[in-house]
Amino acid sequence: DAKTTQPTSMDCAEGRAANLPCNHSTISGNEYVYWYRQIHSQGPQYIIHGLKNNETNEMASLIITEDRKSSTLILPHATLRDTAVYYCIVPTGGGNKLTFGTGTQLKVEL
Amino acid sequence: GAVVSQHPSWVICKSGTSVKIECRSLDFQATTMFWYRQFPKQSLMLMATSNEGSKATYEQGVEKDKFLINHASLTLSTLTVTSAHPEDSSFYICSASVDRITYTTEAFFGQGTRLTVV
Hints:
The complex is a heterodimer of chains A (110) and B (118). With 110 residues, chain A is an all-beta fold. Chain A is 0% helix and 43% strand.
């Protein structure tokens, strides 16, 4: 998998947007960017993925830079339940086999 | 999204005994499933790839004779921790993807199994 770099931790006020950055400068032209999150003591949860266009679903938005070397996951209105470790992953050969880095611990506070 | 179920959610066993963990895809078929292990305050580490009808593929450093994987059907993979020891205590998680022709598929994870060996 292409290497990704994420900040270790971030804080966000409840109701505000949470913007989580990820660098993936070695990404190849046909590799997708996936985002997952893991709430404490649970299995990871798929959030969103994209190739080069920005993507949005009911959970989040994904903004990918034009050169595809970085991306930002946006939770538009963070709640306390969004407190989790967020993983940005660029898997080689599709989205099934995943290599998890250390991720970003997002803490949403009142 | 698709649902992956693990059983049991937690288990305590005595040192030297074996423990079986089940991973089921409830509403889809999965030719391939994956098993991960997660120690406290660490990230998930891929242990092995479970292939339906064939032998599992283990990651480097994972003992295949200790962590037995069986993928007998398109909806069930099992991980058996044989002769468990306290150092095997961990959070075990499986994942599966909907088999599609398209290149990209997201992975769906089970809720995890907390194994404690005493």
